[in-house]
């Protein structure tokens, strides 16, 4: 009886009044809750971004803060687009991104497909496979230098054991043609589990009855894979490719510790070039312009990709 | 034909399962070898660690751990003999190599920095993230989708590109090489993940609970505190662990913005050197100590892993 009275009173009270009585309005509360995050991001991300845009039009050098800063207009951007080293770095990045994505998608999807056979103990082994991707790329990348060491390193030893090539000839980090592959191997080792996990979610999202219907229609296993499994898992595969693509485009830590961009500049991906220009040559204005170009490239690619992803999902 | 037989038709056969299982186990074992090798190397003596062929069976030693936590100086055998008896296992091991312990190394302070910065930034990111996620989940926020995309997009920026202006800004503000500066920076990076993950978790809590609480006379704030938060604990814990792992593993900002007092473990570990190059057992010991917490967290998190790594996009 009493409950019903309370309910009636609550219902009879006009909404705005009720809110006022209860203290802060919902709108006020919403802003109170959201604004600290937005303010922090404006201070730590957006303000520096605008500063970088300003610097990209100047000849400022962070190691000479007292020098007169000259406005250069678009000169930095023009120089970057004509700079041979920058183009080589972009090619190195593209090579790295292409091969890591390809290998990780192929291996990751295959592993997910096999795990989806649900053999005994699959949950345990899945957890074991996932471990490398949770670790620090820097700390683990650093240790791979030891594994790659010719002769005393385990990797070189294992390869020479299988191929009978003398272990001193397996110079993964100092051979110009092997070094780009050394970073691809470590990245694939670390991040294949990531692609695998997302693909597994995709495979598990396919309802069983579709396969049952295909069985009734006597579709071959091959046919089922190409017309059910792959198309239905595709949005997930593309999501994994999107995340890995962005991450590897800005790859820094693992490569910096493993090869430092060397030998020479054979593994100098965009982020390493940026670091060398900004924090070793101290060309702050020039490197800011390069940073802005990289931003635009990442956002552009991500946007195109997200649109494609939505199209696939709508199908 | 009954439904149960139709079901068994699509289930993989025994042989298929066997082959799949064998390949997966083989992959898992091979992929875990580098980690086992780190662990094994941390218990080798320096000569054993660089032996050819690589030693799989060896006499375990904690010399790597001794070297990790101490700095040592080389001395003449006469000087070492003139010293009193060794005061511990490490002392004894070091003396066998004609050296004496000179003092503690920087590893412990760097490790403590990592702890302070990781926990500090995780707390801030989860606190801000929970509030924002609730705001986005329950209220009509103008331009909500744009704001959420803006929050996520900050995560796409290449760290080195962000580091250039941050470096200058921190130099002006006196935040370079301070724990506070690193906490602020990691909070800003992690808050995007926290908002996206927590919004998903809070979306899953039915609104009816709060509405009931508010009819009972709770204010919106009380309803949030007493009904939503307790139900979001699992989500908050999972989010916190993801933030913790990111801050713990982060290298690029730490390497560029810290050099001394606030340096974390990831940029420090690669700089551990012995006489004539990298002291691999000590590096392996530092790496092992650094990785163990993450291994524990990975096992705790395995059910939420998928959600965390896709910003809540895949929920399963």
From TrEMBL, chain A:
GO terms for biological process: transmembrane transport. One of its GO terms (cellular component) is plasma membrane. This is Sugar ABC transporter permease. Residues 90-305 form the ABC transmembrane type-1 domain. The keyword Membrane applies. The chain crosses the membrane at residues 29-54, 96-115, 122-144, 181-203, 224-246, 286-306. It is found in: Cell membrane. Coiled coil: none annotated. PROSITE patterns: ABC_TM1 (PS50928). SUPFAM superfamilies: MalF N-terminal region-like, MetI-like. It holds the Pfam family BPD_transp_1. Signal peptide: none annotated. Keywords: Membrane, Transmembrane, Transmembrane helix, Transport. It is a multi-pass membrane protein. It comes from the Bacteria. InterPro entries: MalF_N, MetI-like, MetI-like_sf, Sugar_ABC_transporter. CDD domains: TM_PBP2. Belongs to the binding-protein-dependent transport system permease family.
From TrEMBL, chain B:
The chain crosses the membrane at residues 20-40, 115-136, 148-170, 182-202, 223-248, 280-301. It holds the Pfam family BPD_transp_1. It is a multi-pass membrane protein. Belongs to the binding-protein-dependent transport system permease family. Keywords: Cell membrane, Membrane, Transmembrane, Transmembrane helix, Transport. SUPFAM superfamilies: MetI-like (SSF161098). One of its GO terms (cellular component) is plasma membrane. CDD domains: TM_PBP2. It is found in: Cell membrane. This is Carbohydrate ABC transporter permease. GO terms for biological process: transmembrane transport. Residues 111-301 form the ABC transmembrane type-1 domain. It comes from Mesorhizobium neociceri.
């Amino acid at each position: 009886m009493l409950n019903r009275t309370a309910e009636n009173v609550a219902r009879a009270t006009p909404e705005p009044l009720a809110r006022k009585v209860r203290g802060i309005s919902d709108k006020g509360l919403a802003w109170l809750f959201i604004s600290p995050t937005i303010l922090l991001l404006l201070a730590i991300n957006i303000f520096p971004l605008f500063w970088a845009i300003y610097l990209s039009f100047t000849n400022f050098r962070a190691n000479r803060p007292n020098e007169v800063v000259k406005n250069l207009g678009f000169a930095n951007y023009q120089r970057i687009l004509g700079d041979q080293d920058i183009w080589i770095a972009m090619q190195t990045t593209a090579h790295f991104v292409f091969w890591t994505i390809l290998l990780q998608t192929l291996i990751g999807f295959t592993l997910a497909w096999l795990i989806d056979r649900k053999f005994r103990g699959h949950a345990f082994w899945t957890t074991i496979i996932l471990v490398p991707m949770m670790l620090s790329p820097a700390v683990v990348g650093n240790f791979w230098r030891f594994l790659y060491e010719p002769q005393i390193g385990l990797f070189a030893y294992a390869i020479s054991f299988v191929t009978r090539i003398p272990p001193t000839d397996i110079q993964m980090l100092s051979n110009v043609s092997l070094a780009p592959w050394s970073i691809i191997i470590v990245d694939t080792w670390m991040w294949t589990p990531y692609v695998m996990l997302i693909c597994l979610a995709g495979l598990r999202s396919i309802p069983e009855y579709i396969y049952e219907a295909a069985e009734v229609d006597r579709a071959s296993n091959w046919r089922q894979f190409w017309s059910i499994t792959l198309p239905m898992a595709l949005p997930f595969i593309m999501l994994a490719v999107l995340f890995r693509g962005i991450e590897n485009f800005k790859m820094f830590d693992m490569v910096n510790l493993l090869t430092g961009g060397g030998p020479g500049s054979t593994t100098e991906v965009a982020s390493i070039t940026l670091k060398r220009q900004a924090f070793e040559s101290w060309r702050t204005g020039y490197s800011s312009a390069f940073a802005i170009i990289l931003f635009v490239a990442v956002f552009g690619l991500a946007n195109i990709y997200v649109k494609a992803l939505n199209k696939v999902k709508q199908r | 034909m009954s439904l149960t037989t139709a079901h068994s038709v699509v289930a993989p056969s025994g042989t298929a399962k066997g082959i799949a299982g064998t390949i997966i186990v083989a992959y898992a074992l091979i992929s875990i070898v580098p980690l086992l090798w780190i662990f094994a190397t941390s218990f080798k003596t320096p000569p054993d660690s660089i032996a050819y062929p690589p030693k799989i069976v060896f006499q375990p030693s904690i010399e790597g751990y001794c070297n990790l936590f101490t700095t040592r100086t080389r001395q003449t055998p006469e000087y070492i003999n003139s010293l009193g008896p060794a005061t511990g296992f490490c002392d004894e091991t070091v003396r066998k190599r004609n050296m004496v312990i000179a003092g503690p190394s920087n590893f412990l302070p760097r490790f403590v920095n990592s702890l302070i910065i990781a926990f500090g930034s995780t707390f801030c990111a989860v606190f801000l993230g929970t509030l924002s996620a609730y705001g986005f989940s329950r209220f009509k926020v103008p331009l909500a989708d744009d704001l959420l995309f803006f929050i996520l997009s900050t995560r796409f920026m290449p760290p080195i590109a962000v580091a250039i202006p941050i470096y200058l800004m921190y130099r002006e503000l006196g935040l370079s090489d301070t724990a506070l500066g690193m906490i602020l920076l990691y909070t800003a990076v992690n808050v995007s993940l926290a908002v996206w993950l927590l919004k998903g978790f809070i979306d899953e809590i039915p609104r009816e609970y709060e509405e009931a609480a508010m009819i009972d006379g709770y204010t919106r704030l009380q309803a949030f505190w007493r009904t939503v938060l307790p139900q979001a604990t699992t989500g908050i814990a999972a989010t916190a662990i993801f933030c913790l792992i990111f801050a713990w593993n982060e290298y690029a900002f730490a390497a560029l913005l810290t050099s001394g007092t606030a340096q974390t473990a990831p940029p420090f570990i690669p700089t551990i050197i012995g006489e004539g190059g990298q002291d691999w057992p000590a590096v392996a010991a530092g790496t092992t100590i650094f990785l163990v917490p993450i291994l524990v967290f990975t096992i705790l998190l395995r059910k939420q892993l998928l959600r965390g790594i896709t910003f809540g996009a895949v929920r399963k």
